[in-house]
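quick one, 297 residues, struct below
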Amino acid sequence: MTPITEVEGRRLALSNLDKVLYPATGTTKGEVLHYYAATAADAMLPHLRDRPLSFLRYPDGPDGLRFFTKNPPPGTPDWVRTAPVPRTDDPDARQVLVQDLPSLMWAANLVVEFHTHQWRRGAPAVADRMVFDLDPGAPASVVECCAVALWLRERLAADGLTAYGKTSGSKGLHLIVPLEPAPSEDVTAYAKSLAVEAQKALPDLVVHRMTRALRPGKVFVDFSQNAAAKTTAAPYTLRAKDSPTVSAPVTWEEVEACADPADLVFLAGDMAARLERYGDLLGPLTGPGPARPLPGV
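---
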């Protein structure tokens, strides 16, 4: 029988709690749900709230079937809120909103990576943050990503913008920049200009085009995730990797000191201590203060 749990007045059927999702660590689905409920929720929910979500689902673990979905999954409870998301192929499209702990736990029970747009419901294609996805091509690693991140931080600061960092939870690093709302196409154009500038400044380290042949040994500065239709792994989400790696906020001191890829690998079990020590390092993104106008807008 599937256990029924009540979360803030909502009844949830939580299934297969003993199922091992991460064979490398023996992490079960029950432990994944505990991570979201007991460790991540308070810090994570502000970063999800009011942002339409897409999900990478991996119900049988990272070695099983994986599929990306934007539409609300079949059987979505009527109390889980959704928001309209304009798409050229579907004018009536909607995506899930995770606004509270019950909806977070409902989604986590599906076994998903959480991915968010850079804009909020009610203002589609008007971004309030900018993202750079720094993706290393082997033999480059997150160590090289850190060098690029430091360059971008200084370049952004020269334009009056503040960057915050998190691991991707995979191989690379994400930089997030809070903005006063601006059209997604303008944010994408500005981010592209900095990616091109980074390649000119660091030609042996950076590439701004996705072409695979150009990427070995370099860091691809992916600016395209600022497009209105695209989403990026959310802070604190677990990733569909061999181990339960987290897209974890990091300090700039950690970025500066990174000398080995293992220095910036954080698992679900690491996060309680990090949150106790640092709080939410990305907290400024969800509060008033650091957002600045996009240059030229």
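The two ends are 57 Å apart (CA to CA).
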